[in-house]
Design goal:
Blueprint lengths: L2 H9 L3 H47 L21 E4 L4 E5 L6 E12 L3 H9 L1 H13 L11 H16 L5 E13 L1
Helix pairs in contact: 1-2
Length: 185
C-alpha cells in the first residue's frame, strides 16, 4: 500500500486510521499522569523553597526589629532643629495636690518652629490661657511627680496637652524649664 492510499483510507474512516488515532490518544492519556506528577513535584518544591526563605528571613530579621543600632554619640545623627522660644509666661507659683501643702514655682519656656509668625501671634494672644494652664497643670500634680527624674515625662505630657487642648494652629515642639521647684510650705 502506498502512502497516498493510506492517507485516503485514514480520511475515509478506515480501521487503520481509527487505530492510529486511538494510539495517539492512548499515548497522550499515558503521558498525562507523568506530566501531572512533574507539575506537582515542581509546585511542591516551589512551596518548600518559599517557606524556607520566609522562615530564614524572619529568623535573621528577628521579627522585624532593626539590627542597626545608632549610638547616641554617633556623628551620623542629624543636627537638632532650632526653635523660636516663647518665654512671656513668666514665673508661676501654685500648690500641689498633696495633703501636706507644697509650693511649686515654675518658669517655663515654649519652643515652636523657627520663624513661624502665626505661632508667635497665637502664643501671645493666648498668654493668659497659657498661664492658667501652667498653674492648673502643676496644681494637679503630686510632689513625687515633679521630681527631676520625671522631667522628660512632664515635658512630653505638657507638649501633648498644649497641642491638643490649648493651641489651634501653633505646634509646640519643645518645653524648657528655667525653674521647676517644689518646696514644703
Amino acid at each position: 500500500m502506498s502512502d497516498a492510499q493510506a492517507t485516503e483510507n485514514q480520511e475515509e474512516g478506515s480501521p487503520e486510521g481509527e487505530v492510529a488515532s486511538k494510539k495517539k490518544a492512548a499515548g497522550l492519556i499515558a503521558f498525562l499522569p507523568h506530566l501531572l506528577k512533574f507539575v506537582a513535584i515542581g509546585l511542591g518544591a516551589l512551596i518548600l523553597i518559599v517557606t524556607v526563605v520566609v522562615i530564614t528571613y524572619n529568623i535573621l530579621n528577628k521579627g522585624g526589629r532593626s539590627q542597626t543600632v545608632v549610638p547616641e554619640n554617633s556623628p551620623y545623627i542629624g543636627s537638632r532643629p532650632q526653635y523660636s522660644m516663647f518665654s512671656a509666661i513668666g514665673m508661676i507659683r501654685t500648690r500641689t495636690k498633696d495633703p501636706t501643702p507644697y509650693a511649686v514655682v515654675v518658669d517655663m519656656i515654649i519652643g515652636y518652629d523657627l520663624n513661624n509668625a502665626q505661632a508667635a501671634t497665637e502664643l501671645t494672644g493666648r498668654l493668659y490661657e497659657l498661664r492658667d494652664f501652667v498653674r492648673s497643670y502643676f496644681g494637679s500634680k503630686y510632689v513625687e511627680e515633679l521630681q527631676p527624674e520625671n522631667e522628660a515625662r512632664l515635658k512630653q505630657e505638657i507638649i501633648e496637652l498644649l497641642n491638643t487642648r490649648v493651641l489651634n494652629t501653633a505646634k509646640v515642639r519643645t518645653i524648657l524649664f528655667n525653674q521647676l521647684d517644689a518646696m514644703e510650705m
